[in-house]
Specification:
9-stranded antiparallel sheet, flat, alpha+beta, about 400 residues
Length: about 400
């Protein structure tokens, strides 16, 4: 037996439970000054990848040494904070709430910022680029990152009412169904709870846990009939306006001459000194007449890219000649393959050879986010209905 092997055997035999020598043998046979017990052997065990997990626990013999030696370091919150900075959108620096897109170099963008960048590029007549690496981005070049979407959905997030933490994937259910401080509907973007006497005009709204106390003291059930009649009249007026719109649409559907078509707005630029973005459709035929639709951004504002509020206005133009006045009602709706939200509004105009253009009317989209969806697309696809009024 070599001297090296003898020294190794001596160190291993003396160390377990030995307090007399207090010495350990290093990995190269040197003698180390150890503390109480067998600290020298502990050094050998660390080098060889052996870890004591306490009584009754055994390390996995198939695991690699580094995995067996790994210890949990720091708090879980620190890891979550690091993940927030890794998975956040490069534009708004916030965690995505829905779809996540990435450029060709892997930089992440939430759906809202991605669409906004494409819309800005359309308004400025430029190629959209990633704000981080400046590579080109488009709907064909960028793809969704499903792994990041799933990772973000598992990160903890605070409930906005009770301030407890829940995975982001289950936060919405907690806030809408389980949280005792929750609210039940949205007012100006905030979720609130309404009184059950709302139908007779009670305007109260607040957190869910205050609902029972309010309803017990609500004054509306004790109002006189005359007072309630005034409140209900105001509520009826708003309902009448909504019903009038739908009844008007049903009445138009009874007309003899009805035409509809799918229209595609294409982007163009003006030829004047200050270029502006506008949209125009090719000529199309409805009710045996030739028409064109035009649209403009923010009513031809000089720099709509500098504004956060964006709107589209449209105009219907009769291109063919008519022998007599042509009285029509028309409305624009979303196309069958688009997801833009458009509220129906009926427009009316009497077309003639001298008055062949309508005034510009706002496209009834819900907000600027929906407008950005339209601007980000190469073309805007809508459906036009025209109803000819017979005299």
């Amino acid at each position: 037996m070599s001297s090296m092997e003898e020294r190794m055997e001596l160190g291993v035999a003396a160390a377990p439970g030995s307090s007399s020598s207090g010495l350990g043998v290093g990995p190269v046979g040197g003698v180390l000054d150890a503390g109480p017990g067998s600290a020298g052997l502990a050094g050998i065990q660390e080098e060889s990848g052996v870890r004591r997990d306490g009584p009754g626990s055994e390390a996995d013999p198939d695991a690699p040494p580094k995995k067996r030696m790994r210890h949990q370091e720091g708090e879980a919150g620190k890891l979550e904070e690091r993940l927030y900075s890794v998975l956040c959108c490069t534009v708004c620096l916030d965690l995505p709430k829905a779809s996540v897109y990435q450029c060709t170099n892997g930089h992440l963008m939430c759906a809202g910022c991605f669409i906004h960048l494409l819309a800005d590029a359309r308004l400025k007549e430029e190629q959209a680029t990633c704000p981080n690496c400046r590579c080109e981005i488009s709907k064909s070049l960028c793809c969704r990152n499903l792994a990041v979407e799933k990772a973000v959905s598992e990160l903890p997030s605070d409930c906005s009412y009770c301030l407890k933490q829940f995975p982001r994937s289950g936060l919405e259910r907690h806030q809408t169904e389980e949280c005792q401080d929750r609210c039940c509907f949205f007012v100006f973007g905030h979720r609130v709870t309404q009184c059950k006497y709302k139908r007779i005009g009670c305007p109260w709204h607040g957190p869910f846990h205050e609902l029972s106390a309010h309803e017990a003291e609500c004054s509306h059930p004790s109002k006189t009939g005359m007072e309630l009649m005034g409140i209900l009249d105001e509520m009826d007026q708003s309902h009448r306006r909504e019903l009038q719109l739908y009844n008007s649409i049903f009445s138009l559907l009874c007309f003899e001459k009805i035409g509809f078509t799918e229209v595609q707005f294409r982007p163009y630029r003006t030829d004047d000194f200050i270029t502006r973005l506008y949209y125009e459709t090719p000529r199309f035929t409805v009710l045996n007449q030739t028409w064109v639709l035009k649209a403009r951004v923010n009513d031809s504002e000089r720099n709509p890219n500098l504004s956060c509020k964006r709107t589209l206005s449209f105009q219907l133009i009769l291109k063919s000649k008519v022998n007599s006045a042509l009285e029509c009602s028309f409305l624009l709706l979303k196309g069958p393959y688009d997801d833009v939200k458009i509220k129906p509004v009926i427009q009316h105009h009497v077309f003639s050879n001298d008055a062949n253009e309508t005034e510009y009317a706002l496209l009834p989209i819900s907000d600027s986010v929906e407008c950005n969806k339209l601007l980000a697309a190469k073309n805007i696809n809508l459906r036009l209905f025209i109803f000819q009024i017979q005299k």
